[in-house]
Amino acid sequence: MPELPEVEVARQSVASRIVGSTVQAVQLGKPLRWPLQIEAKHLVGRRIVAVGRRGKYLLFHMNEGVLLVHLGMSGSIRFADALPPAGVHDHFTLSTTQGLLRLHDPRRFGAVVYSAALDHAPATTLLSHLGVEPLSLDFDEATFVKAMRGKKTAIKQVLLAGQLVVGVGNIYACEVLFLAGIHPATRADKVALYRLRALHAAIKSVLSAAVAAGGSTLRDFSDANGEAGHFQAHARVYGREGLACLSCGAPVLRMVQGQRSTYFCGSCQRG
After folding, report:
1. Is 236 in the active site?
2. Residue range(s) defining the domain that contains residue 198
3. Set 11, 56, 151, 195: catalytic member
4. pLDDT tens digits for 62-104?
């Protein structure tokens, strides 16, 4: 699943190229997770003025309204002067005066949703529950620690829920917990203060490094130019079951939490 770094990489790769363009046509494929919420023809003539991100949503701001794009489990966007005819897994194509924007989503868990504004439904429904942005100044240590100490569930599950801090998906949750020396199954309210502080710092550093590396490409992800990410090559525990821990040499372990694989070092992560 594309996580926050991948979505941010997608945003960066398309923003400067599509901003200022005018929508000329819209082509829809098979239905996605949620309906578009507007007749496609009504988007024609609107101008794209900015491309933002909230959590794992791309936000294409227009002079009237905003398109919220979610990549789902296996989606990616492409932007180019010309693209081949839409294939069976291409479900949304926006033709603009500066190129074609296309959502490719084999599993169709993604979505393109129109909202009149971010403070109107359906945007409020989709975004209002999201936690703080981890790469923003709003992600302060004291608030994070206090919120974690109020949670009585496994700390990895708290991270994945996205209600305290948004966008720390499975890959990056494994990595930040390793750096902080925290066992993924430890209850959040039982983690030592110094480890929670280390976790806060790890979230910022790992996600920043992942964005700089173009995100992680495990199966499907590529940016809007078709370029794969490379952060997975630097993973310390994710996907390394049975291999030696890069810190202590003990074998990396795997367990299942909430139907997702969790990778960790039983020696390094005791907190």
Report:
1. no
2. 141-264
3. 56
4. 999 999 999 998 889 999 999 999 999 999 999 999 999 999 9
